[in-house]
Amino acid sequence: MSSTFGNKIRISIFGQSHGEGLGVVIDGLPAGKALDLPQIEAFLDRRAPGRGGAASSARRESDRPRILSGLFEGKTCGAPLCAVFENEDARPGDYEKTRDLPRPGHADYPAFVKYRGANDYRGGGHFSARLTLPLCFAGAVCLQFLSEKGVSVGAHLLSAGAVSDRSFDPLMRDESELLLPQKRRIPVLDEEKAEAFEALFEKTAAAGDSVGGVIECCVLGLPVGLGEPMFDGLENRISSAVFAVPAVKGIEFGAGFEAAKRFGSEINDPYGFKDGKIITKTNRSGGILGGLSTGMPLLFRAAIKPTSSIALAQETVNLKTNEAQTLEIKGRHDVCIAPRAVPCIEAAAAIAIADLML
Amino acid sequence: MSSTFGNKIRISIFGQSHGEGLGVVIDGLPAGKALDLPQIEAFLDRRAPGRGGAASSARRESDRPRILSGLFEGKTCGAPLCAVFENEDARPGDYEKTRDLPRPGHADYPAFVKYRGANDYRGGGHFSARLTLPLCFAGAVCLQFLSEKGVSVGAHLLSAGAVSDRSFDPLMRDESELLLPQKRRIPVLDEEKAEAFEALFEKTAAAGDSVGGVIECCVLGLPVGLGEPMFDGLENRISSAVFAVPAVKGIEFGAGFEAAKRFGSEINDPYGFKDGKIITKTNRSGGILGGLSTGMPLLFRAAIKPTSSIALAQETVNLKTNEAQTLEIKGRHDVCIAPRAVPCIEAAAAIAIADLML
Amino acid sequence: MSSTFGNKIRISIFGQSHGEGLGVVIDGLPAGKALDLPQIEAFLDRRAPGRGGAASSARRESDRPRILSGLFEGKTCGAPLCAVFENEDARPGDYEKTRDLPRPGHADYPAFVKYRGANDYRGGGHFSARLTLPLCFAGAVCLQFLSEKGVSVGAHLLSAGAVSDRSFDPLMRDESELLLPQKRRIPVLDEEKAEAFEALFEKTAAAGDSVGGVIECCVLGLPVGLGEPMFDGLENRISSAVFAVPAVKGIEFGAGFEAAKRFGSEINDPYGFKDGKIITKTNRSGGILGGLSTGMPLLFRAAIKPTSSIALAQETVNLKTNEAQTLEIKGRHDVCIAPRAVPCIEAAAAIAIADLML
Amino acid sequence: MSSTFGNKIRISIFGQSHGEGLGVVIDGLPAGKALDLPQIEAFLDRRAPGRGGAASSARRESDRPRILSGLFEGKTCGAPLCAVFENEDARPGDYEKTRDLPRPGHADYPAFVKYRGANDYRGGGHFSARLTLPLCFAGAVCLQFLSEKGVSVGAHLLSAGAVSDRSFDPLMRDESELLLPQKRRIPVLDEEKAEAFEALFEKTAAAGDSVGGVIECCVLGLPVGLGEPMFDGLENRISSAVFAVPAVKGIEFGAGFEAAKRFGSEINDPYGFKDGKIITKTNRSGGILGGLSTGMPLLFRAAIKPTSSIALAQETVNLKTNEAQTLEIKGRHDVCIAPRAVPCIEAAAAIAIADLML
Fold first, then answer.
1. HSE on the CB side for D189, CA within 13 Å?
2. Would you place residue B333 in the very low, low, confident or very high pLDDT band (cuts 50, 70, 90)?
3. 89-118 of D, contacting B, C-beta below 8 A
4. How remote is the C-alpha of B16 from its chain's centroid?
5. What is the pLDDT of residues A1-57, one digit of tens each?
6. How far is A69 from chain D (nearest CA, A)?
7. Res C88: pLDDT
8. Is B10 part of the contact surface with chain A (CB cutoff 8 Å)?
9. Looking at CA atoms only, how far is residue A70 from chain C in angstroms?
10. What is the CA angle D295-D301-D305, rounded to 5?
């Protein structure tokens, strides 16, 4: 495993889905900053089980961090910040029966081979989406530091299955639209679409199936020139963090894959002025050129595959007996992980940017 | 800049498009391996200007590496391997007139701000696609080491504009199809499509425009369980390397963005047996689950935006006079960078995998 | 702060002397190894307050690790291992009165400046020797992995003030002498010297003073050729880890500073054979040539300065009033930190070597 | 090998003693700084063969850097800086006869085992002290950046064999004494001692032997609080860089090993004021407390073992025939490497500090 991220700020994540506890150490934070814990907890609540309407798992965890170090008199003190979470509603027994049956779509089989059977198979162990809890904690902390520098991050559920929200305005100039989705039960821009998403999730759940989605994320307020190409440019670093969120299978910046279908005259962003400052008049680059921020909104989209745990019968193999077998997964699973992944993607982006910026 | 990549193998790339020379240091290679230089040069030739038919720039460079260190009696000797290339056909004067005019789509403007005007603006300096030459050298070296472990890497031009090649077979079992595109002037699988690509490139060139494309890449022969999640999983590391190739704006693994539109029952790959070994019967995961290789072909696609340098007039601003201005780019540019980017994407993948594997 | 160490194995240490708790995350350990917790606790006991005879502080902590992650069914499972310790006998009030008075020899003053007054000043915060507790935990874990590869590490108190133990035999061939000091109250080779050390500590304590010491450490069983020069050779990596132990002010390998006074003919180790294997007939190199292990015992010495906290009156300045002031330190302090630092040095060496070897 | 150093600035060194060429890539330097090349060359001249009086080798190299990248119009441009040196006076044939005979004191034997015989044995290959040439280049570049921040670095030959120079004044307040040794043929503070050193070197050379030495180094002008403990404190980072200089076998900061013999009341530095600023009245800490700079002169000493290549007959083994054999080393070797190592130690210190500071 390599659950450590960052150069200036080093984040080390630990824990398993049904183990004793999980958490994160954040090393290298600037000292003297008062952490707003209620704000951090509000952030964590956005990924909590139970959010995302019909899409969400029934596992219930309070998910309140216990901060062991790094704070002194309420402020960061220069020492590494460690936050620990207990697993309160773990039900490791749920996984006993299917121990030898790798679940399609999960890491079970390659993890079994890699760790020669010693991996904690219960709920995916360290591969579980539950590990996004400490990731979100780290992201929420980074967001507070970024906020001081005028940087804010927001994301929304752009699509799931065939249902779509509208996109962020790539020329947006303030946070009004950015933070809108956070206030909603389903994190969308266009409130009227929430119902269509809910209907999709309910229908999918009823079918014992799951569904994928796309998350769009925007970072506002970046200075011009952030990024360290060739290998630590904004795209390299953000993708490197975002792929730590389980189920992400693709990422694109600005026009992304659409740009591959177009002509240069359609994709190049012409330069101009606005309020005396240099801007691009369009923003198909997603605010990144040559790995560097242009000062325009940074925009990317992440593709989230359907939740791998589904109730429908699936073909698998028994790792002990080496026989083909049919698997039916019980347990508490999200129909669509994308709504709860929205803050996780924000957190990943925040961590990548804080590491370049602080 | 941070043009250094890798943990076990450390690659450090240097040079500017129209500077003295460029090259790469590769530290951490196993000792005692005879390097096949003609094979490396053949690999470099695939990205050389002049390849890619009508798509390609007219700049002519011999692009032969001079190896300064790391080889002894023809074999790697444990010491860092350094290869240097001279810039022979540099024409820095081409860029003099437009020094103060950032070219839309290029890194010029954010680089100017970041380096406070001290950046080498000529042909993009260190941001130039010419820097993929040492990247390809490093990739070609890594490929030789990977080849000893039974791993091979191949890519092709999947699409450009509205023209498409067929896709790799995600269940392919040998190299026969993998290496096919390398033998062709336009690196495609389906030879009959070459003509349609050529026609697109010619028409686009005639219009003074450029066009984007998608490259599909496949890695065969990986052991099960390669990757170090959460942050050094296969997707994190490959994307981190691939975004070092200029013009890449998106990456997706397996079903990628398509997975976001589908149900779990359509995307999960059922397990089964083939020749006594565990396989997945489909391969929508692209050979990666939880950041780990499954043993199936690893498949990803990279979106390449249209070449930013186009002959058509574009709006820009003068960084000295702070006035709006029209820019017409002369010089020697690829109509579509994607064909020549094919070996670059292979190189990036090879580097990422070698760093996890050697 | 940068309390993260390692490339293959990544160790992240957190905590403050009088904070909530402290601990360590160890990422990258091989999976499937049963941890011997009693052995780890026995190792921790060697650094516990109360050891080292008269030299030791009166602070009483049980120092039992709570393992939050990384173990499954008693074995390492591939996921990061996190161990947490509670601070049970913290007395932060002891430090209130002297908050504005930097203690000579401690990090108080530069830490105050660096963190602009936000640092946790109580007992040195993250700079405290208490942070060697998680370091020792990490070292004890690494020792178990090294032990499987035939590598063992031992250290002893070579000297304190003017009192000296005898040195390790630089040609030692088995563990008999290596592990001797661990069984003693004062970790010395020559049992008869224990009394002289005790007498020194008692006299020093009575004088309200403290005293320094030298620790000699030996690593047995290394394969030939371990180390990655120029910058990750054995000396670079071991010193990099050893200077994380507070109060270390010097390190020397083999003949060390003595070598600087001698001729080449006295210092070069001649080669020969023993039992059919190539050996050096002497071992003034300390088992390291060119940063690589020679296969002979690896030997180094670390200089430990006297405990900075002494009862005697000292001159300091008031950081608030900017006035000169006299400081008298109350509290519970080791007269000589060196005896308790013996396992810390072993731990640091074990971590450095495990990171190169596993 | 791992010849890469640094986090903010990344230095990658390549080359072998008798190979094609050698050099260094420095990534992450601030842009827009005019490099003073004559000053860099003057620095390199201080380590050139022929310096150090009778102590020095007869190999003659012009050692002029060719800068391939990173400069534009004479200034750093943000891109990695690469400097290459040719090997002009290489005589690889000198080493042919003794190919199978590992030289006592050199890395030959462990390198042979590590690289399974593929290592470049000629003159030690990448292990050669010749590799300090690119190290010195990198150091000289860093020194120019440090100089802008008011930081300067100087070193001198403190002792060799039984001959000693006087020490730096640990409370020195300006550069007058710091830069004195650089102007002398033998880099000493006390000019009258030069003769005694010369006599020692001549006598030692006549005896076919070599001799070791101690280098003392001082860094002036550091801000208070530089360093990132626990693992990237000043001592960790400086030692990590200094042990890359071949033949270094020990390092101590401030009172160093002497501190281990003393009482706290003798070693703690009392605080006071000078010109309104907080100072320590003594400086036994060597300007470092808790891994952080105190603002006082940073002082350390490095022990250099005698040159391993001596003319006297030595015992070795034949790696091919597995027989004991006598070795007589011909060739051109420094009697005492310490005088020429003086700028190397300065360079190593400069690199470590620049990496923490820039």
1. 19
2. confident
3. 111, 114-118
4. 17
5. 899 999 999 999 999 999 999 999 999 999 999 999 999 999 999 998 765 566 666
6. 15
7. 84
8. no
9. 7
10. 160
Number of domains in chain A: 1
Closest among C282, C161, C157 to C217, alpha carbons compared: C157
Beta strands in chain D (DSSP E): 4-5, 10-15, 21-27, 66-69, 71-72, 75-76, 81-86, 152-160, 163-164, 213-220, 248-253, 271-274, 277-280, 288-289, 292-293, 298-304, 314-317, 324-327
Determine the distance in angstroms separating the CA of D59 from the nearest CA of chain C, rounded to an integer. 20
**Are B304 and A225 within 8 A, CB to CB?**
no
Nearest CA-CA distance, residue C6 and chain B, Å: 11
**ipTM over 0.85 threshold:** yes
Domain of A322, CATH number, reads 3.60.150.10
Which of D221, D216, D220 has its CA nearest to residue D166?
D216
State whether the Cα torsion A15-A21-A22-A24 is positive or negative. Answer: negative
What confidence tier does A61 reach under pLDDT thresholds 50, 70, 90?
confident
Domain that holds residue B108: 4-357
D16-75 tens-digit pLDDT: 999 999 999 999 999 999 999 999 999 999 998 766 566 666 677 889 999 999 999 999
Query: Taking CA atoms, what residue in A is nearest to D355?
Result: A8
List all residues of chain A from 291 to 310 with a beta carbon under 8 Å from chain B: 291-295, 301, 303-310
Pairing relationship of beta strands B277-280 and B324-327 according to DSSP bridges: unpaired
**Inter-chain contacts counted by CB atoms under 8 A, chains C and D:** 365
pLDDT average, residue stretch B251-275: 98
Residues in A closer than 8 angstroms to C108, CB to CB, are none
Listed by number, the residues of chain D in 187-206 with a beta carbon closer than 8 Å to a beta carbon of chain B are none
Judged by a CB distance cut-off of 8 A, whether residue B7 touches chain C is: yes
Q: Which residues of D touch C236 (CB under 8 A)?
A: 239-241, 243-244
**C52 in contact with A, Cβ within 8 Å:** no
Interatomic CA distance for residues A50 and C289, integer angstroms: 61
Chain C within 8 Å of D259 (Cβ-Cβ)? Answer: yes
Stretch C43-51: mean pLDDT, rounded? 85
The pTM for the full model equals 0.97
Strand partners, C304: C213, C248
User: Measured between CB atoms, which of A108, A231, A264 is closest to B306?
Assistant: A264
The H or E element containing residue A112 is helix A108-114
CA distance B170 to B239: 19
> CB-based contacts of A132: which residues, under 8 Å, 6+ apart?
A47, A245, A246, A341, A344, A347
Gap between the Cα atoms of C194 and A269, Å rounded: 78
User: Amino acid identity of B167?
Assistant: S
